[in-house]
Amino acid sequence: MKKYCTAVGILALVACNDSEATSVISADGATEYEVSGAGGDTRVRMSDADGNEAVFAGGSDAAGEPGLPDGYALYPGAEVESSTTFNGSQGSGVMVTFATDASSQELVEYYRKQATSADVEIDTDARTGEDQMIAGEGPGGLSFSLQTSPDGSGSTGILVIAQ
Asked: The pTM is what?
C-alpha cells in the first residue's frame, strides 16, 4: 500500500509541475517510479524487483484502447479519462474511468451483457440514488465491477476487471 501512496504523491507533483520525465527509486532500491507528463497529460509506471508493474495514464495519454481483456470493450463513443493496468505475481487487471453520453442504466446493461458472456456471475447489483454498481466473479478468479454516476447529460463509469 505504501508503494501506491508514493506513486499517487509523485503523480500529484507531476500534475502540478508540467514535468517532462521523472524517475525515482525507493529508499530500499526495490521499487522504481517513472513519471512523465505535460499539461493535463500524465503517465506513471511503477515496478518492483519481483516483476510487479502498474501503469497509470491520464489526460490524452489515456486515450485509445485501455487494455481491456478479451470479450470486453469500451462503451461506444465513450472517452477514457484515465486507465490503470497492473501485472504481477498476484494477478493482473485494468481499471478504466470514462465519460459518455449514455445513461447509467445503458452502461449497466452494456457491461452486464459482456460480463455474463464471460461467465461472470453478477452477485452485486446496487443503486444509491442515481448511482449504480454491478459486480461479480467469474472463472479462474476473475473479478468484475462497474460503477456509474450521472454526469451532466451523460454518465461517468469506472470499470475494473482483474484476475
From this structure: 0.74
Per-residue H/E/C for 76-142: CCCEEEEEEEEEECCEEEEEEEEEECCCHHHHHHHHHHHHHHCCCEEEEEEEECCEEEEEEECHHHC
The residue among 157, 130, 134 whose CA lies nearest residue 144 is 134
CA dihedral 7, 13, 17, 23 (to 10 degrees): -40
Domain ranges in the chain are: 1-62, 63-163
Question: 45-73: b or e for each residue (b if 16 or more CB lie within 10 Å)?
Answer: bbbbeeebebbbbbbebbeeebbbeeebe
Q: Give CA–CA dist 110/47, Å, rounded.
A: 34
pLDDT tens track for 103-149: 999 999 999 999 999 999 999 999 998 899 999 999 999 999 999 99
